[in-house]
Design brief:
CATH class: Alpha Beta
CATH superfamily: Metal-dependent hydrolases
Number of helices: 9
Bound molecules: nickel (II) ion
Oligomer: single chain
Structural class: alpha/beta
CATH architecture: Alpha-Beta Barrel
Radius of gyration: 17 Å
Order of helices and strands: EHEHEHEHEHEHEHEHH
Strand content: 15-25%
Number of strands: 8
Length: about 250
């Protein structure tokens, strides 16, 4: 029984077959899925989806790509959504200096504002960090002791992993760990304490190797967990069970 801690089931990519995708996830042995909003309308859809399906939980936040769209009232609506019982985290929030879809100064300001909101609401955060490792760590350090959470689709090296773990954050390993060239990520997945790891798909993006280039879905998180077990030389069931326990502790469900 494993848990996909980061999916985007509310996205349009699933509009034609969302129920079938969920059915395949339960068939594959998933115990729960956290579906993560990236825009205010998608947060509304994520919460609605979580409220319709018992094993689905929601996270609400504005993705760094989208923070330039934050308007008067956005945070108030996020605050309302975040108080709904099926919402377990604030996210995804963070910094993306790879695509730079929003200006960096706006990303930095809005990341801080959403970290403050998480502290106020006492919710864990789901952090997106792409090509912004030192800036992300600086914000995490500014909120040390007040905010905890997870680095989603972790992409740093072992040195950064140790810093994040020391700050009390868990690390989420996604499908790219299964790619032959992901040596740095494989090192992190092999060396980090299993008690601090969760797994995710980030579907519809980032399919693991056997579905690479095609739409990803929660059932495929099993492939990622199995691959990590191989790296660590332990049974796949142990990775599934421990990462699921970790997800329950992290998100409190
Ligand atoms: Ni995501």
């Amino acid at each position: 029984m494993t848990i996909d801690t980061h999916a985007h089931l509310e996205m349009a990519e699933f509009d034609n077959d969302r129920e079938a995708v969920l059915a395949r996830a339960w068939e594959a042995g998933l115990a729960a899925i956290v579906t993560v909003g990236t825009t205010l309308p998608d947060c509304e859809r994520a919460v609605a989806l979580a409220e319709r399906h018992a094993p689905v939980y929601g996270a609400v936040g504005i993705h760094p790509h989208e923070v330039k769209e934050i308007a008067a009232g956005t945070y108030e609506r996020l605050r309302q959504l975040a108080r709904r019982p099926k919402v377990v985290a604030l996210g995804e929030i963070g910094l993306d200096f790879f695509y730079d879809h929003s200006p960096r100064e706006i990303q930095l300001r809005c990341f801080g504002e959403q970290m403050a909101l998480a502290a106020e609401l006492k919710l864990p955060v789901i952090i997106h960090d792409r090509e912004a490792h030192s800036e992300t760590l600086a914000v995490m350090k500014a909120y040390a002791g007040r905010v905890r959470g997870v680095l989603h689709c972790f992409s740093g090296d072992w040195a950064m992993a140790k810093e994040c773990l020391a700050l009390g954050y868990d690390l989420s390993i996604a499908g790219p760990v299964t790619y032959k060239k992901s040596l740095q990520l494989q090192e992190v997945a092999r060396r980090m304490p299993l008690e601090r790891m969760v797994v995710e798909t980030d579907c519809p993006f980032l399919s693991p190797q056997s579905h690479r280039g095609k739409r990803n879905e929660p059932a495929y998180v099993v492939e990622t967990a199995t691959f990590i077990a191989g790296l660590r030389g332990i049974p796949a069931a142990e990775v599934q069970r421990q990462t699921a326990d970790n997800a329950r502790r992290l998100f409190g469900f």
